[in-house]
Specification:
The protein is an alpha+beta fold. Helix content is 59%, strand content 20%. The strands form 2 sheets. It has a 5-stranded antiparallel beta sheet, with helices on both faces. A two-stranded antiparallel sheet has the order 1-2. The two termini are 34 Å apart.
């Protein structure tokens, strides 16, 4: 009975240690993958902004190469260009008018007019986008003559992380079940020499007691 209790306690300790290791491993994997996906999304957006900027001509007014903005290489990129009066110069994707007219983009547009740029997450239906808003500057006068907004979908980041979480949970459950069996086996093997030694000690004491009682 004594060794059975010790066996349970030792197996429980092994099991808790295993759960902590699995949890720590899952956390590291999630954080690493999350940072990697976010970095890719950021790089994709920077590339899209750079490509879109090449199609914008800034003088005293703003003009765009609409065909260039529709290039297949930026098929997932949606661009809107505004002049200094916030009038649309180009919006190649009319279906996304609701996205660009989101109230959350009013402040970034005003900030861009002052020469500041920034990224804003905007929902459109079931999709999530990140919208980069920046000023269009006349290279000669250095004056802001318009605003460019570049939007890219980032729902895939959340979808990928959700899939990763499901896989990690499934793998952890399987690992915990196997770990519980392994913990019991390890605890049994660890206590086996002690159990044998204790049994030999009991036998020795019993034999000694018998000899002492025998004349």
């Amino acid at each position: 009975m004594m060794f059975r209790g010790a066996l349970v306690r030792l197996a429980a300790q092994y099991f808790v240690l295993l759960v902590l290791i699995l949890g720590f491993f899952d956390l590291i994997v999630y954080v690493t993958v999350s940072q990697s996906l976010q970095a890719k999304a950021d790089n994709d957006l920077k590339h899209a902004v750079s490509q879109a900027a090449k199609e914008v001509v800034a003088t005293d007014t703003v003009s765009v190469n609409a065909q260039g903005l529709l290039d297949p290489s930026v098929a997932d990129t949606f661009v809107r260009v505004l002049d200094i009066k916030f009038q649309e110069v180009s919006q190649p994707q009319p279906a996304l008018k609701k996205l660009f007219n989101s109230p959350s983009l009013k402040d970034p547009i005003a900030a861009a007019k002052a020469g500041q740029s920034g990224d804003t997450q905007v929902s459109s239906g079931s999709d999530l986008y990140v919208v980069h808003t920046s000023a269009i500057v006349n290279p000669k006068s250095k004056k802001v003559v318009g605003v460019m907004q570049v939007a890219q979908p980032i729902s895939w980041v959340g979808d990928a992380l959700s899939g990763l979480v499901r896989q990690l949970v499934l793998a952890s459950v399987i690992g915990i079940i196997l770990g519980a069996l392994a913990s019991l086996l390890m605890a049994t093997r660890s206590l086996r020499p002690i159990s044998r030694a204790f049994q030999r000690q009991r036998e020795f004491v019993a034999d000694a007691s018998h000899e002492l009682r025998t004349p």
